[in-house]
Amino acid sequence: MIGCSCAVCTSSDLRNRRRRSSLYVVAANQHIVVDTPPDFRDQVLSFGVERVDAVFLTHPHADHIYGFDDVRRFSTMQQEHIPVYGDPRTIKQMRKKFDYVDRPSYGFESVPRVQFTDLVEPVSLGDVRITPLPVSHGMDKINGFLFEGDGQRLAYIPDCNGIPDETFQCLENLDAMILDGLRPEPHPTHFSTRECVDYLHKIGARQSFITHLTHSSDHHDLQQQLGHGVTVPWDGMEVKL
To answer: Which residues pair with 30 in a beta bridge?
Structure first.
């Protein structure tokens, strides 16, 4: 947290050094990024990401999209347009905020070469199926995503304070569930720690993770509090399903 000297912000435990939320999924030879936050360049450099076959965007808030320009390096290396999926509102905002992407006057390497695509139903990339998961984020309706590939099921909902019944029904028999649990105190647009954990227990995935944490939570203390049922991840954590 900028300008903060609390115990978490000054901690020597690297697990307390948190960039904005993002996810990299590799399945069935597909390499998929979920959200391109302002930290995106630092994330892909730090953790050795060398290929991106598609980008999925949960919603157009600044902390989830403002690293998008660095997708250009992947389209340049791969010499191809990279598909970018989001709900119609998100794609409309992306075209507005990154209006230069579609201008023909720029050279191929000068901008992200992408194909913006409205996502209103499940889509398949090779043998990976991605299903949008509508959830509430305050007054906004946004998406999480369900990934199915290599015989595994992973759901990722990083921003959420409500899960409708039709989405909850998609969260059965999961190998992993990653869910928003911002802070111990209630919040108008995010699940609190307790709300997140309650939902994770109801979902009952084989592995459960809390994400989108603030400096209100020390990694070690929160993991001790939650026990073995829910994992507190850290930046760069890799999970093999």
So the answer is: 27
Degrees, nearest 5: CA angle 230-233-236: 155
Tens-place pLDDT, residues 167-219: 999 999 999 999 999 999 999 999 999 999 999 999 999 999 999 999 999 99
> Can you read off the two tokens belonging to residue 46?
């730090």
Letter for the amino acid at 241?
Answer: L
DSSP 67: T
Round to whole Å and give the CA distance between 187 and 108. Answer: 43
152-157 vs 140-149, strand pairing mode = antiparallel
Place of tokens 């984020």: 137
Q: Tell me the CATH number for domain 20-226.
A: 3.60.15.10
- Note the pLDDT of residue 160: 97
pLDDT tens sequence across 65-96: 999 999 999 999 999 999 999 999 999 999 99
Scanning the structure block, which residue is given the tokens 């991106």?
Answer: 52
Q: What is the pLDDT of residues 92-115, one digit of tens each?
A: 999 999 999 988 777 888 999 999
Residue where the block lists tokens 């992993």:
176
Domain segments of the chain as ranges: 20-226
If DSSP codes are grouped into helix, strand and coil, which group holds residue 228?
coil
Helix residue spans in the chain (DSSP H): 40-46, 62-65, 71-78, 88-97, 165-168, 193-203, 219-226
Of 241, 240, 181, 177, give the one whose Cα is nearest residue 208.
Answer: 177
